């Protein structure tokens, strides 16, 4: 009986080892891996990132995330939010991508942006319940600030520059 239990345990552990080494976790879609834009640091369009505070909601029901990251791309017309958390009890969303943002670039260090009725994506899928409206913001020198409505939630972000890859500018 002990021998049978031992053999089954070894087979179970080996099965787990093989399952953990599979390559079935690759991104779906067209091969354009937008979900790791900021984390891997290889995307030349998102070479500038800002670490800051994202406040969701107003008053006593507001939620503050002190470790949110935002990056933008004038060329891609997009914002990316990393470590976004929209309310207490909600899991942290690794990467939310917001395409279709209108940018005005006065210089590399002075950019304004806006948007209306933009459906963000999360893990490559539309995140319609958090459609952005009234998006207004700017990146100037080492600061990025924006506000918007994300679904029913007012959102404000204020961050400081944490990464600049001058080779991709």
CATH domain class: Mainly Beta
Structural class designation? mainly beta
CATH architecture: Beta Barrel
Mean pLDDT: 75
User: What is the total domain count?
Assistant: 1
Low-pLDDT stretches are 5-45, 165-169
Main beta sheet, described? 11 strands, antiparallel
**Beta fraction of the residues?**
over 45%
What separation lies between the terminal Cα atoms? 67 Å
What's the total helix number?
Answer: 2
In short:
This protein has 169 residues and is mainly beta. It has helices at residues 2-20, 37-40; strands spanning 48-56, 63-73, 78-84, 93-99, 102-107, 110-115, 121-122, 125-126, 132-140, 143-150, 153-164.
List keywords for this structure.
169 residues, mainly beta, Porin, eleven-stranded antiparallel β-sheet, 11 strands, globular, disordered C terminus
What would you note in describing this structure?
The termini are far apart. This protein has 169 residues and is mostly beta strands. The model is unreliable at 5-45 and 165-169 (pLDDT under 50). An 11-stranded antiparallel beta sheet has the order 5-6-9-10-11-1-2-3-4-7-8. It has one domain (34-168): Porin. The protein has helices spanning 2-20, 37-40; strands spanning 48-56, 63-73, 78-84, 93-99, 102-107, 110-115, 121-122, 125-126, 132-140, 143-150, 153-164. It has 2 helices and 11 strands, in the order ααβββββββββββ.
């Amino acid at each position: 009986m002990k021998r049978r239990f031992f053999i089954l345990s070894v087979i179970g552990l080996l099965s787990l080892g093989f399952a953990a080494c599979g390559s079935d976790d690759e991104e779906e879609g067209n091969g354009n891996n937008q979900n790791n834009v900021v984390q891997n640091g290889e995307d030349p369009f998102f070479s500038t990132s800002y670490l800051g505070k994202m406040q969701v909601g107003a008053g006593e029901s507001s939620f503050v995330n002190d470790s949110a990251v935002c990056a933008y791309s004038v060329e891609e017309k997009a914002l990316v939010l990393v470590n976004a958390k929209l309310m207490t009890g909600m899991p942290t969303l690794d990467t939310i991508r917001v395409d279709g943002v209108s940018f005005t670039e006065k210089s590399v260090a002075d950019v304004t942006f806006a948007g209306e009725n933009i459906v963000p994506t999360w893990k490559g899928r539309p995140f319609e319940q958090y459609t952005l409206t009234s998006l207004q913001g700017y990146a100037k020198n080492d600061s990025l600030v924006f506000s918007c409505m994300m679904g029913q939630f007012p959102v404000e972000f204020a961050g400081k520059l944490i990464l600049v890859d001058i080779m991709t500018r």
